[in-house]
Design brief:
It contains 23 helices and twelve strands. It is an alpha/beta fold. The protein has four domains: 38 residues; 140 residues, Uridine Diphospho-n-acetylenolpyruvylglucosamine Reductase, domain 2 (2-Layer Sandwich); 194 residues, Orthogonal Bundle (Cytochrome p450), CATH 1.10.630.10; 153 residues, Ribonuclease H-like superfamily/Ribonuclease H (Nucleotidyltransferase, domain 5, 2-Layer Sandwich), CATH 3.30.420.10. A six-stranded mixed beta sheet has the order 11-10-7-8-9-12, sandwiched between helices. A four-stranded mixed beta sheet has the order 1-2-6-3. It has a two-stranded antiparallel ribbon with strand order 4-5. Helix 9 packs antiparallel against helix 15, helix 19 runs parallel beside helix 21 and helix 22 runs antiparallel to helix 23. The longest helix is centred in the N-terminal third of the chain and has 36 residues. It is globular and about 75 Å long. The termini are far apart.
């Protein structure tokens, strides 16, 4: 009897422990449900306790599941995955709300647990960066300048032509044999990219690229939330993250370590090249940071080759489109038999085929998630703080309300239409959108005064904090119905120029008090609404951004620059080498303003 009593006591004790263990989880879930009931959230399927809507999704085809849910609940839906509230946009209008209208409130980044396990991820990766800080801007600007700027692309044009010719020669030797064309494309793209980064090939066209592609896709999986991200309470039991980190380190050492070590040795000896790796070493990047950034760029090779594979597959199935494209290319190359990069922009049907492929098969069905740093309203729905905003590019590309016959491959739909791939048209978002000029971190503070002549022209002049001239731009381009709009556009242009130059702290000086007042007081204005919204978004590209009204007599240099551009009839862009009259005028402006301040 005593034994039975003892067993019952132990059972109650275990039940008590279990209850105490589950109580925080249940209370947390209950408090969230109570809070959400008071909010007007976007519609969506009913969420189960604790697990949320995980059972409503297919892990391998999540984008199609969410597209189907959007047809039921609407273009903006909400789901709960564990502890996270996810808001999914599946139409151009809702995507614009997330990516542009509420870009400031939804400017946060999702921090994955894997970023705490792999060294240097937060400080050396663009997509997995914890926040859009100065370091993040530096990484983006460096990659853009050294790899993707017009100057960089032009300098590597011969390299690309050589690699493409090597691919064609390799295919010519196959003589009718079965070829895994996507693998050949992948190897070619990888070698083009690695030659710009480290000045050498890392794979041969004859090699089996399976292992390399497998590693590339495993890198993509690092950016996918794990169970520990969805259920933070089980993070301590996430042994898979440690295994992934170990595999990641081994692959890095095999792929990049020898090259980086060898290059560091050359720089120590006083000899260095001018590729991307040299730039990173000169900026004191450690090995882990270089590996991480290289891998982030490296994964794009698989996306590009897969997209090209989709394009070839769609053209093979649609012979009419294939014949039209073949005729266009034949007419362009004439008797030379070669197609140069400079001719690509003159092939509208080829451009249309690329856009149509990206519409149906975006490289990533979901754009980079945006985390709400503050609560906001999107199309009259409440978006709580710390929610995730996700844009389903796959669903937008197949939206029946946007596209006629959306499931068919019809490049003709893009002919005669000004739909680009830069993120300005929200019907087509294969690469994302939003206003985000590239910036570098600078320690000096710059003043950017602006002025406008009575004619259609504007001038922007940049001086450092001592008054020394740094740069000036002038252009006879703006012709607006309202003069105040021209002045607002000049301010916006000045901010874009300053961001592209990489200045961290700026003071915008303008002699238009009406525009400065509207910016400082966050006033609504029908005429300026779009421009003021752009200015508000651009402010986030700077460590410090102030706006100041100056009298016209202290801003004469801007007006003189604009007048000079009007007389010249073209854009004026001076840096470092300035005309004497401009230097004298800049110094006079500074001295007169200093006297007035005294």
């Amino acid at each position: 009897m005593d034994t039975i009593a003892l067993e019952v006591t132990n059972s109650n004790q275990y039940l008590l422990y279990a209850t105490l263990f589950m109580m925080p989880i249940l209370l947390h879930a209950f408090s969230r449900c109570k809070a959400n009931n008071s909010l007007h959230l976007p519609p969506g399927p009913r969420a189960w306790p604790i697990i949320g809507n995980i059972l409503d999704l297919d892990g391998e085809k999540t984008h199609t599941c969410l597209a189907n849910l959007a047809e039921i609940y609407g273009p903006l839906i909400s789901l709960r995955l564990g502890s996270k509230l996810i808001v999914v946009a599946s139409s151009p209008a809702t995507a614009r709300e997330i990516l542009k209208t509420h870009d400031q409130a939804l400017s946060g980044r999702l921090t994955l647990r894997i970023s705490n396990v792999i060294p240097g991820v937060k400080s050396s990766m663009i997509v997995l960066s914890a926040e859009c800080n100065q370091r993040w801007r530096f990484l983006r600007s460096t990659a853009r300048t050294e790899l993707f700027s017009c100057r960089a692309l032009e300098s590597h044009s011969k390299l690309r032509a050589e690699k493409v010719q090597n691919m064609l020669d390799f295919l010519g030797l196959k003589g009718g044999a079965v070829v895994a064309i996507v693998d050949v494309l992948y190897a070619t793209i990888v070698n083009i990219l690695t030659n710009t980064m480290i000045s050498k090939d890392i794979i041969n066209l004859k090699d089996n690229v399976g292992e390399l592609r497998k590693f590339s896709r495993s890198l993509v999986e690092l950016a996918v939330p794990s169970m520990a991200d969805i259920f933070p309470l089980v993070g301590a039991l996430d042994f898979q993250a440690k295994r992934k980190a170990r595999d990641y380190k081994e692959k890095n050492e095999a792929l990049w370590a020898d090259t980086v070590s060898e290059r560091r040795g050359k720089q120590d000896c006083g000899t260095s090249g001018a590729d991307f790796l040299d730039v990173l070493i000169r900026h004191s990047f450690d090995d882990c940071e270089i590996f991480n950034l290289f891998n982030e760029l490296f994964v794009t090779s698989d996306s590009v080759s897969t997209t090209l594979g989709w394009a070839m597959s769609e053209l093979t199935k649609n012979q009419d489109a294939m014949l039209k494209l073949r005729d266009e290319i034949t007419n362009a190359i004439g008797g030379t038999g070669l197609l140069s990069e400079s001719q690509l922009a003159k092939l509208p049907y080829l451009q249309a085929c690329i856009k149509e492929t990206l519409r149906l098969h975006p490289p990533s069905p979901f754009l980079v998630p945006h985390c709400a740093v503050q609560s906001c309203k999107v199309t009259d729905y409440d978006i709580p703080k710390n929610s995730l905003g996700v844009v389903n590019a796959y669903a937008i590309g197949r939206d029946q309300k946007t596209w006629e016959d959306p499931l068919s491959f019809k490049p003709e739909r893009f002919l005669g239409k000004n739909l680009d791939l830069k993120g300005t048209h929200y019907e087509l978002l294969p690469f994302g959108a939003g206003m985000d000029p590239e910036t570098l971190d600078m320690s000096d503070e710059f003043r950017v005064p602006m002025g406008r002549t009575n004619k259609a022209g504007w001038g922007i002049v940049a001086r450092d904090w001592k008054g020394k001239l740094v740069a000036t731009w002038a252009c006879p381009s703006f012709t607006c119905s309202a003069p105040i709009l021209e002045k607002a556009l000049a301010i916006r242009t000045a901010m874009v120029k300053a961001a592209l130059e990489g200045w961290g702290r700026i003071i915008i000086e303008s002699d238009c008090k009406a525009v400065i007042d509207r910016i400082l007081k966050d006033m609504d204005d029908v005429v300026l609404s779009t421009v003021l919204q752009d200015i508000k978004l651009l402010k986030h590209n700077f460590e410090k951004c102030c706006f100041s009204f100056v009298r016209r007599e202290f801003n004469s240099i801007s007006h003189k620059s604009a007048k000079f551009a009007l007389n010249l009839g073209s854009v004026v862009d001076w840096k470092a080498c300035f005309p004497v009259w401009l230097l004298d005028s800049a110094q006079a402006d500074v001295e007169e303003q200093l006297l007035q301040d005294v």
